[in-house]
Each structure stands twice: as C-alpha cells, then as structure tokens.
Design brief:
It holds the Pfam family F-box-like. Belongs to the FBXO31 family. This protein is an alpha+beta fold. The chain has three domains: 51 residues, Up-down Bundle (Monooxygenase); 139 residues, no CATH class; 178 residues, Beta Barrel (Lipocalin). Helix content is 27%, strand content 26%. The chain has 14 helices and 19 strands. It has an eight-stranded antiparallel beta barrel with strand order 1-2-3-4-5-6-7-8.
C-alpha cells in the first residue's frame, strides 16, 4: 500500500490507510525489505548524501498519461478516476473514450461530429455502448412456433436490432434479408433513446428492458405507427409481398394459403411487445465434417427456414431457429449419425426410390438391433467406427475401389448425384455431385407438434456450404445453404453452455 502511495505521490500528503492507522495506535511502521543486488565487494559504502527522489505517475506528462489510460479497459477507468483530482481531469479527455469505443465496440465513425450536439465520446461509451452491451449478439424471439433470428450490433453511432429473414422461397442460395426492429442512440447528453422501427411510418418511441441474464424484451409505445390506412387487408398484402415476394393470387395451393394466413394472424399480435432469449453460434472444430454454422433450407409449403448445424462427436444435429406449426423453432429437425456412411448405388439405380429406400431401411434395422443389444447389455465394446468419425477430406482405399466399380459413398472429389424419381424438391437447382452421404433421422409431426416422430433419411454433403436431406417417409428433399454473414458477440462461453442452450431451446416452444 505504501509503495502504491509513493508511486502516485500521495504518500506524503495524504498517507496510506495502514500508515495512518499505525500512527493512531502508536505502532511502529514495518520496515520495507529493500531489493539486494549481489556484486563485487568494493569495501564499505559511504552513506548517501541525500535520499533518492520519489517517482510518481503524476510526474509524467499529461499526454503520456492519456496514452496509458486509453489502453486500459473502459470498465476500469471509473475506479482510476477516484485516485486523485489529476487522474479525474485526465480521464475526461475524449481521446481516451474514443479509443475505448473503437477497440471494444468497433465504432469507427468520426466521433468529433458529436461535439455539435454536446455529446462526448465518454457519453457514447457510458450511456450507450457500455449500458446496452448485454444485448449485443444473437437472439431468438419468442413468437410461438415461428421463432426467428435477431442480431443486435453496433452500427456506427447506433445499436440496431436486425431481424434476419430468409430469402424468398425457394431461392435458398440468395442472401438473407435484414429488417431493423429497433435502434438505440444518443440524441442528447441525458440518456440513450430507444426507437421502434416496426411499420412503414418511420422510427417512433420504444422501450427495452433487460428481464434477466440472457433475456430482454422490447415494447412499442406508439403502435399507431404500425397501422395502415387500408386496414388489416392492406397490412396483410404488404406483409405477404415482403415475407413471400408474391401476392395471394399467385399462390394456388389452398393448404399453403392457409399456412400463410395463419402465420400473419399469429405473428401480427406480437408487433408491439417481444421477448428475446440469447443463442450462440455453434462452436467449430477442425475435426468436424464441415464448418458448423447457420443455414437456410427449404421446408415444403412452410417456405424457407433457418437452422443451426452443430457437431457433437460422432453426430451432427440441425436445430431450428425458425419453425412452423408442425415442427416449431427450437426443435431438432435432423440428427445425423456420422459413423454410418451410406454407400449410394450408381446413378441409374439411384433414380429408383425403392433402391435407396431399401438401403436406408436396412441401416435403420441395424441401428434398432444394436440399440436393443445395448439395452440388454450384450455389447462387449465400442465399435471401432464410433471412435473414428470420418472427415470431409478422408476417403479410404476401399471406398476409392468401390468408386471405380460404380458403388461408392463418394470421395473428396465427389460423385454424380440425382434425386430418385418421386422425391419432391422445392428447389430443382441442387448440386449434381456430392461428396459423402450418411444415415440420419428427421423430425416430423402433425399440426400443433402432435405425434412427433423421428423417421429415417439421408444426409447428403454437397460441399462446404451446402447439404441436403431426403425425408424417406415424406418422399421430400430439403436443400440447405450456408448463411455467410459474420456474427459478433455470438461465441458460447464454453461447450457446456452451448449444449445447455440447445436443451433450453427445445423447452421454449414445446
């Protein structure tokens, strides 16, 4: 403590607490152990003529102190300001807070223009960025079975909540559509302003409340901004053009019309208040079959939906971020067994659905037999292939030989692929070569998530950014394409935290 006091040059003037307490109780001050440096014996040393000068941070030039303080984390600076009056004065320098805004939150805007409005860089850091730091990252809105994907980011001098919407069905390879739901910024020195961006009449008054850890809610205080002069009919037609890119007259399938109308009615009741729960980007590993991440995929009459592909040792799981009345958001849409490689037949026989179906059902029967053996305790050890899940680049000599004979599961260079006759595909522009195929199960259910059942299927890996899944029982094919956006503040603190999040997501919409 005494050393700290001398460093800041406040020991002689103010004294440290320990020294003051010792003087009050009449105790002797403990002697400080001096650092001893060994060297040649030069004889008795002469006593110094004067004590060595004390060194202090306060003796440094102010510009050097500004540079030192600017390199410290922003949350530590308020404590530093309590050391002395000079530190407090230096910490009011905007250069320090401008650097903190840039390094901690990526604000690259010219913050000097804030001087016109009387807002300082310190105000931006303390009242905007640091205050709302807990809502940055990825979130799933609580919109019943439909879910969604919200990305809250620092955008210039704003914090903006962007809702990620899939491209119009069935164009799965097109980029995501972004729609702002709210924004936060500083209009004056007093406090940050929250604005709702829903509707077509511009920003208006809103409110954000952090409910608890990893959960917050938004509320619109001027819902009249959401209404249109033409009433609900005009609102529905506008929503239909934005959501589906077409009019109701363009959709001839009655079942699809019912699903669209149902979604509009259900989601429109959440236009003034929403709750969001934090989600994480799936962790990635060099051992994974392909890079984990977020993908958009085709789901028949339900349109395009967003899923999260994650790897868990010998399995890959696809979890819905957006859902539908049959299988809601948060549920595991597919489970792929990476130890069960599917050897596809040649292209001519692959066109016959019965051939593929027989191959997959045989694997399913084998899985059931092994599960029964496990339950009866008749398995003596773990299968070798369970310990060594395949990699994308790996292709054994045996598989290469099979490829020459026309019966291969695919190698790193790919093999011809075509959907069997009778399998429905929303998007016919799927790749005509694939790298690997694996046995998996897909989740299907009735309306309202009734009678959910995992049914067999085939996971087809096309390349690093696209894969497909054939739902055997539905005779349906889903094509998935990677969402290429970069997401900040979305990394899970640990693998356990990510796994816990996946479990929680299933309970949110069940």
């Amino acid at each position: 403590m005494a050393v700290c006091a001398r460093l800041c040059a406040v020991g002689s003037a103010r004294g440290c607490r320990l020294r003051q307490q010792q003087h009050q109780h009449g105790e002797a001050e403990p002697e400080e152990e001096e650092e001893r440096i060994e060297g040649p014996d030069l004889g008795p040393a002469e006593p110094p003529s004067s004590p060595p000068p004390r060194r202090s941070l306060l003796q440094l030039p102010p510009e050097l102190l500004v540079e030192i303080f600017a390199s410290l984390p922003g949350p530590e600076l308020p404590n530093l300001a309590q050391v002395c009056k000079k530190f407090r004065q230096i910490l009011s320098t905007d250069t320090i807070w401008r650097r903190r805004c840039r390094e901690e939150y990526g604000v690259c805007e010219n913050l000097r223009k804030l001087e016109i409005t009387g807002v300082s860089c310190r105000d931006v850091y303390v009242k905007l960025l640091h205050r709302y730091r807990h809502i940055l990252g990825l979130w799933q809105p609580d919109i019943g079975p439909y879910g969604g994907l919200l990305n809250v980011v620092v955008d210039g001098l704003f914090i903006i909540g962007w809702m990620y919407l899939p491209p119009h069905d069935p164009h799965v390879d097109e980029p995501m559509r972004l729609k702002p739901l709210f924004r936060i910024h500083l209009m004056e020195r007093k406090a940050a302003t929250v604005e709702c961006m829903y509707g077509h009449k511009g920003p208006h008054n809103g409110h954000i409340q952090i409910v608890k850890k990893d959960e917050f809610s938004t509320k619109c205080n001027q819902t009249d901004y959401h209404r249109m002069s033409g009433g609900r009919q005009e609102e529905f037609r506008t929503w239909l053009r934005e959501e589906w890119g077409r009019t109701l007259e363009d959709i001839f399938h009655e079942h699809m019309q019912e699903l669209i109308l149902m979604k509009f009615i259900y989601t429109s009741q959440y236009d003034n208040c929403l709750t969001y729960r934090r989600i994480y980007h799936p962790p990635c590993s060099s051992e994974d079959l392909l890079q984990a991440g977020l993908f958009k995929g085709t789901y028949g009459s339900h349109g395009l939906e967003i899923i999260m592909l994650s790897f868990h040792g010998t399995s890959a799981k696809g979890t819905k971020l957006t859902g539908d009345p049959n299988v809601p958001a948060g549920q595991q849409t597919m489970d792929v067994d990476l130890t069960r490689r599917v050897q596809l037949p040649d292209l001519e026989r692959l066109r016959n659905f019965e051939v593929l179906s027989r191959i997959i059902l045989e694997i399913q029967e084998q899985v059931h037999r092994e599960q029964q053996q496990d339950e009866l305790g008749e398995v003596d050890g773990v299968r070798q292939d369970m310990r060594n899940p395949p990699k994308l680049e790996a292709a054994s000599e045996e598989e290469e030989g099979e490829s020459a004979e026309g019966e291969s599961g695919g190698s790193a260079t790919g093999q011809p692929f075509e959907l069997p006759m009778g399998v429905m595909a929303r998007n016919e522009e799927y790749p005509r070569t694939c790298k690997m195929c694996f046995y998996g199960t897909g989740l299907i259910a009735g309306h309202g998530f009734t009678s959910p059942e995992r049914t067999p299927g085939v996971f087809i890996l096309f390349d690093e950014d696209r894969f497909g899944f054939i739902w055997l029982e539905l005779k349906s094919f889903s094509l998935y394409s990677r969402i290429r956006d970069t997401f900040q503040n979305a990394e899970a603190p640990s693998r356990e935290a990510f796994d816990d999040m996946l479990k929680s997501m299933q309970s949110w919409t069940t």
